[in-house]
Amino acid sequence: MTDSHVSNSDDYSDESSGSGSEVSEDAPPPAIPAVIANWYLNENLGSGYSGSIFKATQIHTRQVVALKVQYVNHECPTNRYERHLYPLLQGGIGMPRLFASGVEGAWDYLAIDLLGSSLDSLYRRSGKDTMDLRSVCSIAIQVIGRLQFMHHRGVLHRDIQLGNCVVGLPPNDRIIYMIDFGFSKRYIDPYTNRHIPDSKAKRDFIGNYWFSSVNVHCRGKVPSRRDDLEAAALMFIHLLTPRGLSWTRNGVPKTTEAHDRLKAEKRKATAEMLCRGLPSEFEEFLAYTRRLVFKECPDYALWIDKFRDLAKEEGYQDVDNFIWPPPLPVVLAVKSMNTPLRARTPAIPRDEMEGILNGLGKLNLGTQAVLGDRTNVQAAIQKAKEDAKIDSTKQNGQAESGNSEPIVISSDSESGAVPPLRRQAAPKAIRLNRLSDQASHATDNAALARLVGEFVDVLQMNSSRTLTKEAFYFLDVLYKQLDDPSVFIRPPRRTSRQHSFSELVPEKEPAHVKLGVVARLRQEVGKCQSNKALAVLVSDFAKVTNKSTGRTVTKDGFAFLEGLSERLKLLQ
Ligand SMILES: Nc1ncnc2c1ncn2[C@@H]1O[C@H](COP(=O)(O)OP(=O)(O)OP(=O)(O)O)[C@@H](O)[C@H]1O
């Protein structure tokens, strides 16, 4: 057990015990022998409060494992409990396999998969005061996935911390494993198949000082699934906060008063306070875990998706794998022909572009193998021609009036000979904030119409079509401009997604409610006769999206925003 642990031995009353040891209870622990049962002990990998972990070799088969060794009379005999938990967790990704367990002489041992470094030691060794966002998103995706699996098997971890998340050894070094099930417990009663009961009685705390949930640590409540997730949320936030969560900075409390102060600080810290300056997903995740009721099953998949989307929006690839040291972000590829992308810059006429491409194709680049390769140019010309045909049948008269669409060179060139065109895309958040600033200075409807159009573009360019806090902020600015521009005051920027029109709507609503409301808004937007009427619709749109679980903009939602842009052009 690490020094940040507090345990309560009564908590194990529901677990079977019995070491089979004949060692006198008063005897001091003897020296650890070189061989325990069939295991030859190599180097020490780490020591906790209740025992030590060795790299060990099976003397007959030469199998190499991690051997967790504990003195049988230790006051906190976690091996005795862990051996009953491991079988419940076998077969899951990131769950160590248990190969053998038993008691020999004074030693209780567990032979498990040999694994790599803990996140704690990776983080410390990096020498940085925060971990990078990509790594934290990967950790979030994997740790939430591990908890989903454990909970699905009816087991709570109850001691989520960086030291208990370790990476595997190659080839599994991109997988995070959960270890240390010494405090774990079944929350589904195996006889009744029911969730363990809640209790009003205050119980002794079990867990660790840094990340245990407020309910468990500060209020003495019975741990359930929500508390594992809250601990995970605190751990993610800790990794992104310079010098970590404030209550971790003074070390382990040594007196009851110091522990009480730590608890008071933790209890006071709201999700909003802890997550200032972080991507809103972290604040929302922590707030979500704190809203869960005792027996509620968390929506693990939703949060895994959100952290995956967040990482992708920031330009990170392959985030389901924990890659250490972290790779640099890959800049976003330009949208391919298949993805809708509006042109806001003046279009180069199609025939002019074809001329340029032909000219490029005729360049005499001699024998230089790469520059002289024209396959991509030919492919682009061909594709441009094909698209011209498709578009001209679609657009009929438009081409005659000189209103031609730009050619977009597809990044998925069939030849595959040239890497895709890449551009440095400003992250979604920055672009949305820029739009909000422009909206706050807009003086007429034409400008607002253009900005709403760009808002749609930004949302559609991202794989995640969720309304982020920056998107809500834009809607807030827009609402205030439409409602009464003469008294327009720029709303304060906040990290939360709750803004002036959405402050009174904390409850979630079922998906069909959102779909119905947005479909109505889509119909109504074309009939509005004033900016004030449009403001009401913008407010309704923001509210209903804020209340929906995924906060995703639906097809109707996009149609509403596009209708809004059109209507603004007409209501000059
Ligand atoms: N399977 C493993 N492979 C490699 N190293 C491991 C393994 N399990 C644990 N370790 C190392 O040993 C340390 C202690 O392990 P563990 O947390 O399981 O023991 P503990 O006695 O319960 O300690 P704690 O006080 O942290 O709860 C870990 O921090 C880790 O670095």
TrEMBL record:
Residues 1-22 have a biased composition (Low complexity). Keywords: ATP-binding, Kinase, Nucleotide-binding, Transferase. Residues 39-304 form the Protein kinase domain. ATP binds at residue 68. Pfam families: Pkinase. SUPFAM superfamilies: Protein kinase-like (PK-like) (SSF56112). GO terms for molecular function: ATP binding; protein kinase activity. SMART domains: S_TKc. Residues 1-28, 385-419 are annotated as: Disordered. Residues 393-414 have a biased composition (Polar residues). InterPro entries: CK1_Ser-Thr_kinase, Kinase-like_dom_sf, Prot_kinase_dom, Protein_kinase_ATP_BS. This is CK1/CK1 protein kinase. It comes from Gymnopilus junonius (Spectacular rustgill mushroom).
